[in-house]
TrEMBL record:
It comes from the Eukaryota. This is MEI1 protein. The lineage of its organism: Eukaryota, Metazoa, Chordata, Craniata, Vertebrata. GO terms for biological process: meiosis I.
Length: 302
């Protein structure tokens, strides 16, 4: 069934949202809801279809074209299609790397546009932001080096004629620049304050992947980012309101991140003891799966 659906997508235009939306969703779930053996075959089918990949290229580019100032906050049919496109490409990135599948057509993505979508948001719906962050996580995990996606943008060809103080760090973090990193971190922190469950999960996951990428490229920068004093204020903000418990998935994952990178100015022994005390008093069997998993990671890291 993948063959006719792929061919159908390849004959569509990005404006054919009523047809493309369910088709891309079918392709996405075909990748995720199958056995590993069938998954590898499915990836090969999708990546061998040049017309599908060309269509996906057009869909991704529409993200920057379909952004009028009066864009509604709700998810329109166009935005829903963009979500499906970004999620499918992120999945293809992941599985192409896992199975080392042959690529017949590359996709070109502007890194500056992707970062600006998260940094400035521009009234983009939450689900679209989450989808773009999924893609950003995928390229970060692959160090911006993929057979499927070619990253372009103003920082992909650094100039040697810019003697700025942070030039050495920018070179180490290439294709990211230090200013982009700090802007992205601040924006992720601000998005966390919205306390939307889906958004919080995506933001924390993106922050984790970003710091891991920085740690590989430049440990000093990673430790500097992880120890920003604003993180402590963010934790207090997340713990304010109705649910003051430390046993919230996003809080536990943030705490794990700070413990991993030894950010003692963000999380102290007192907070660690409080979490362990809350865990000791809780009924572990009744905790939601996401909370139990986050608690396991935190205790393992401690």
């Amino acid at each position: 069934l993948l063959f006719p659906v792929c061919n159908l997508c390849g004959k569509c235009r990005p404006r054919d949202t009523d047809l493309l939306q369910p088709s891309l969703n079918f392709l996405y779930w075909s990748l995720h809801q199958t056995t590993p053996c069938s998954q590898q075959r499915a990836v090969a089918v999708l990546l061998s279809n040049v017309s599908l990949l060309e269509l996906l290229q057009k869909v991704l580019e529409c993200t920057w074209l379909w952004s009028p100032p009066s864009r509604p906050a709700y998810l329109s049919s166009e935005d829903a299609l963009l979500c499906s496109g970004w999620l499918l490409v992120a999945s293809l990135l992941l599985y192409q790397h896992r199975y080392n599948t042959e690529v017949h057509q590359t996709l070109s993505v502007d890194l500056t546009e992707v970062l600006n979508a998260v940094i400035f948001r521009n009234k983009k719906p939450i689900l679209l932001l989450v989808s773009i962050m999924q893609f950003l996580r995928a390229v970060l995990r692959q160090n911006f080096s993929s057979s499927l996606v070619v990253i372009v943008g103003q920082n992909t060809a650094p100039s040697a004629t810019q003697p700025q103080p942070s030039s050495l760090q920018d070179t180490a973090l290439h294709p990211l620049a230090m200013q982009q990193v700090f802007s992205l971190v601040v924006s992720l922190q601000n998005l966390l304050v919205h306390k939307d469950l889906l958004l919080s999960q995506a933001v924390v996951a993106c922050l984790e992947t970003l710091v891991e990428y920085l740690h590989v490229k430049n440990q000093d920068v990673a430790l500097h980012v992880a120890s920003q004093p604003w993180h402590r204020f963010l934790l207090f903000t997340l713990l304010s309101g109705g649910q003051k418990s430390f046993l919230q998935p996003e809080v536990l994952r943030l705490m794990t991140l700070f413990v991993r990178y030894q950010s003692s100015n963000i999380i102290s022994q007192k907070e660690i003891s409080q979490i362990i005390q809350e865990a000791a008093e809780a009924n572990i069997a009744e905790l939601p799966e996401a909370t139990a998993h986050a608690l396991h990671l935190f205790l393992s890291q401690v």
